[in-house]
Design a protein that fits this description.
By secondary structure, the chain is mainly alpha-helical. Helix content is 74%, strand content 1%.
């Protein structure tokens, strides 16, 4: 599935001010999928230790239960495009909303560990769908003049979802007097944490009935009259609607449906540019960012911070994540992608090295010494800040711009798959690595942050200010 990102034809293209509010509503409704993406991805952070205790499992098994959702993510992302092209973007959103809802209920009321893992996969499938359908739909309905700004709603929704999940977890823990297995209304606190997602999931489903189908999909199935109505809604009646329909039809006929075979090169399997995309995706994960979102409560408790405090710090790092994302959105078109990536890599490397040093100290009465504890907390927030203002946003911008038109869709799919695999590797390995040597684990993440600097300098070209047609 691809988006209709054609250059403007003759005639007015900006949405009239009276239409812009409606367009923002449509975009925000679609971005609810991104909110659920962030919420479902990180809400498990509050339940990790309770799941370990409830089912009396070791670090290896625990890691698989946490990471198994990523299998669903990969499958959902790989299939969402075809599903949306067959039944429409709105129906795809509604399926994702149902899956989010079912996953939340199932995860909150598991019979055993195996069905908790199953519901995690179901939720992961919904995350994968939301990660694809939201940006594609927004690109297809947004007027050209506002497409960049409206497209940023998805990333903003993701980081807000992460923050809200941590705030909800913290509030529920306080209701349970600081006990993740404390009983509230007949259910343990961690079950409420996972179950609350029903509320935004149902809201997402309801909102999907209030927004129009993508004009691009409507044209693809021959519903041109309805497509004109939607184009009038989002672009204004001053636009030549017949010309817009013809333009979209022409662009669709010209599109090259890239395949995996188009990515193959004579050396090392893939074309060099594809390897660069894979490298960006993998480095984004190998610095250990998802440890901050999946395991931060467990991490802080392991070095002596009480549960309530650990949940609060998980929330504050999520706020820092939002701040960093806003900074990146402001600077990415002004400063450029490469400079942000390099600054982010340097900042992350320093912060991770400080965390590694802090965690190398021996615990005193089950806690880090005061100096190391303060350094660890500050460094963790600095790490998330530098990730968010750089690699968190820049990698997705690069992947959307760096590939030639003829291979863009297939190359994006391969790069995204590499990202899910790297995400799984970090998520599945952290509990065992932390048990082995927490400081050593952070040294590994520091190594990858440092290694990303020469990678960017040598292989990654700036894409700022270049038309997509210039990418070769």
């Amino acid at each position: 599935m691809t988006s209709s990102a054609q250059p403007p034809a003759s005639g007015a293209r900006e949405a009239h001010p009276d239409h812009l509010g409606h367009v923002i509503f449509i975009t925000a409704a679609a971005a609810m999928g991104g909110f659920l993406f962030g919420y479902d991805s990180s809400v498990i952070n509050g339940a990790v230790e309770a799941i370990r205790d409830r089912y009396d499992i070791g670090s290896g098994t625990l890691a698989q239960v946490i990471a198994i959702a990523l299998i669903g993510c990969a499958i959902g992302a790989a299939t969402a495009g075809r599903i949306a092209d067959r039944i429409g973007r709105i129906r795809c959103m509604q399926i994702a909303a149902v899956l989010f809802t079912v996953s939340a209920i199932g995860s909150a009321l598991p019979f055993a560990l195996w069905d908790l893992a199953f519901w995690r996969i179901v939720g992961g499938f919904a995350i994968g769908m939301a990660s694809v359908i939201g940006p594609a739909y927004i690109a297809e309905v947004a007027p050209a003049a506002y497409r960049g700004r409206l497209g940023s709603f998805q990333q903003a929704a993701i980081v807000i979802g992460i923050a809200i999940s941590q705030l909800v977890n913290w509030a529920i823990l306080n209701l349970a007097d600081g006990d993740q297995r404390g009983v509230i209304g007949g259910l343990e606190a961690w079950q409420w944490m996972l179950g609350v997602m029903v509320i935004p999931a149902v809201l997402y489903g309801l909102l999907s009935f209030a927004i129009p189908e993508s004009p691009r999909f409507l044209i693809s199935v021959g519903r041109k009259d309805r497509a004109r109505e939607v184009l009038a809604e989002v672009e204004g009646h001053g636009v030549d609607l017949d010309a817009r329909v013809v333009e979209i039809e022409t662009a669709m006929r010209r599109e090259h449906k890239s395949t995996f075979r188009d990515l193959l090169g004579s050396r090392f399997g893939f074309l060099p540019i594809v390897w660069v995309g894979i490298g960006l995706s993998v480095f984004q994960q190998l610095v250990g960012i998802n440890v901050a979102f999946y395991y931060s409560s467990t991490l802080w408790q392991s070095v002596g911070i009480d549960p309530a405090g650990s949940f609060f710090y998980s929330f504050t790092t999520s706020i820092i994540n939002i701040i960093g994302t806003v900074i990146a959105m402001v600077l990415v078109d002004r400063v450029g992608r490469r400079p942000l990536a390099l600054v982010g890599s340097a900042g992350m490397a320093i912060a991770l090295a400080c965390e590694a040093w802090a965690f190398s100290a021996d615990l005193v009465d089950g806690k880090l010494p005061e100096t190391q504890g303060v350094v660890a907390l500050i460094a963790a927030h600095v790490f998330v800040l530098f990730f968010a203002l750089s690699w968190g946003v820049v990698v997705w911008v690069f992947l959307g711009e760096m590939f030639p038109n003829r291979i863009r869709a297939a190359a994006l799919g391969v790069a995204a798959s590499a990202q899910w695999i790297a995400n799984w590797a970090i998520t599945a390995s952290f509990p065992s690595l932390a048990e082995w040597n927490l400081s050593g684990t952070y040294i590994i993440y520091t190594f990858f942050a440092v290694l990303s600097i020469p990678f960017v300098l040598k292989f990654v070209k700036e894409t700022k200010g270049k038309a997509l047609e210039e990418m070769g």
